[in-house]
Amino acid sequence: MDLVFRALADATRRSLLDHLRRRQGQTLQELAGGFNMSRQAVTRHLDLLVKAGLVSVSWRGRERLHYLNPVPLARIGSRWIDRFSASRTDALVRLQGKLEKRMHDPDYVYEIYVRAPCEDVWRALTEGDFTRDYWYGTTVESSWVPGDPVRFLYADGRVAVEGKVLEADRPLRLSYTWHPLYDDALAAESVSRVTFELESTRGQTRLRVTHDRFPAGSRVRQHVVGGWEFVISGLKSVVERARPD
After folding, report:
1. How far apart (Å, rounded) are the C-alpha atoms in residues 110 and 239?
2. For 72-114, how does the pLDDT look when each residue is reduced to its tens digit (9 = 90+)?
3. Is the pTM value of this prediction over 0.70?
4. Cα separation of 114 and 189, whole Å?
5. How far apart are CA 159 and CA 140, in angstroms?
6. Are 132 and 139 in contact (CB under 8 A)?
7. Residues 6+ apart with CB under 8 A from 110
8. DSSP per-residue letters across 108-167
9. Which domains are assigned to the chain?
């Protein structure tokens, strides 16, 4: 089981398993498209998942198709959950899932690699001179002290988004509430939360954006799904363009 735990310890490999859970039989090209890394890097992650038995492979001509294999996870469950408590555990998990689905829409998570130090990415997230270049022309304003306000302003002074700083651990973690004001229907919805996690890895910064705490049937979630990919891809371009060759 050591190989299974080692495979599951990495966020990228867990994300690959999530991709396969949503759709089985994906090629390397399809899986690599969801990550900002080389195909070789994705292949190394997949090989470790295959070695751990969490992913199985089938060939279709020259294409290698990947399938999620849940058996090792079931073995872990059977080892630590005896047959008498298994039914209760399954029932509680199902109940939790139903309650959480009823109360909240699922979290939105987006991850990208930026060829720059964490400090540069942090500045791009927190300084208005940067956000104007990639965040729909808005300027972010905040002291970045927990409890203080966050505002994204259009050039004419109108507030596009407002929030409150929840966490600010420079340059590794930033979190604030999210209340869009640029649309009346979105403004009527309860506030959600955005969290940025920055990790230095192999000379790059792995930036993970998690937008969560959506109410059930959230219009905001529907609206931001494509928006975050546009914004963070823009951040990557701005930061990398500013770096010396």
Report:
1. 18
2. 776 676 666 555 455 555 555 555 555 455 445 678 888 899 9
3. no
4. 32
5. 10
6. yes
7. 208, 209, 228, 229, 232
8. EEEEEEESS-HHHHHHHHH-HHHHHHHSTT-EEE----TTSEEEEE-TTS-EEEEEEEEE
9. 2-71 (1.10.10.10), 108-242 (3.30.530.20)
